[in-house]
Amino acid sequence: DARKPILAIDGPAGAGKSTVTRLCAQRLGLLYLDTGAMYRAVTWQVLQSQIPPEDEVAVAQILPTLDLKLCTDSQAQLRVYIQGCDVTEVIRTAAVTAHVSTIAAQPAVRSALVKQQQRVGQGGGVAAEGRDIGTHVFPDAQLKIFLTATVEERARRRMQDLIKQGETQISLETLRQQIAERDRKDSSRAIAPLMQAPDAIPILTDGRSIDQVCDLIVQHYQAINDC
Ligand code: CDP
Ligand code: CDP
């Protein structure tokens, strides 16, 4: 149902936003919108085009021809396309992660992607996650959640994800530093920095399972729906 309330989930890297938002969207019958994937896709295209990520003018020039699309496949997994080409996996590489906060701080990038996100959410019915959903993209969202976890816990989660993917070269301390650095960049940028909206409900996820966090969010959503 397109008129269902919007669920906005923000928070730092590794808080569990993607995992939890996708599951909540499935349970609540909402369209899942991963805005981080969109910033990653732009970053991938910039690197692919051999544009220096700091070159704002050159980055802005590729935006009109980007043709970025998000789709959900038959297993309810998100797939990301640029010019019809599936970039779902390549946007998760370390090279993209290292440059995404630089790209995401650029005004032209943010204005293009936010417009696209707002079009998707026009009629309601979306569960969107990112850094600025409750503060800028959908400031009137009926339910806003700010998902957090300590940086140590987030580094441990990232480490487990990497080990599962067969990547064991990186140390926990390096991961912790990378996450802290991205938090710093995302929270200190001039436009739409990562912050909790005044009307967001904070959920600290340390020591909570994915299911427990989802249950909590679904309860909040059903409560606003009953009003
Ligand atoms: O999954 P992970 O937490 O690593 O990050 P992500 O959600 O995929 O987002 C990647 C990057 O995109 C973030 O570090 C931000 O720099 C940027 N981002 C943003 O600026 N605004 C959003 N709404 C979502 C992501
Ligand atoms: O999107 P974001 O970067 O906020 O986090 P994510 O990529 O969804 O989640 C990072 C990892 O934490 C995943 O491996 C989840 O399974 C795990 N996790 C979680 O998301 N929530 C918990 N309460 C516990 C673990």
UniProtKB/TrEMBL annotation:
Localization terms from the record: Cytoplasm
Residues making up the signal peptide according to the UniProt record: none
Cytidylate kinase: annotated span: 1-227
Residues of the Cytidylate kinase domain: 8-222
Function summary: Catalyzes the condensation of pantoate with beta-alanine in an ATP-dependent reaction via a pantoyl-adenylate intermediate. Catalyzes the transfer of a phosphate group from ATP to either CMP or dCMP to form CDP or dCDP and ADP, respectively.
Family from the record: Belongs to the pantothenate synthetase family. In the C-terminal section; belongs to the cytidylate kinase family. Type 1 subfamily.
Protein name, as recorded: Bifunctional pantoate ligase/cytidylate kinase
Source organism (scientific name): Lyngbya confervoides BDU141951
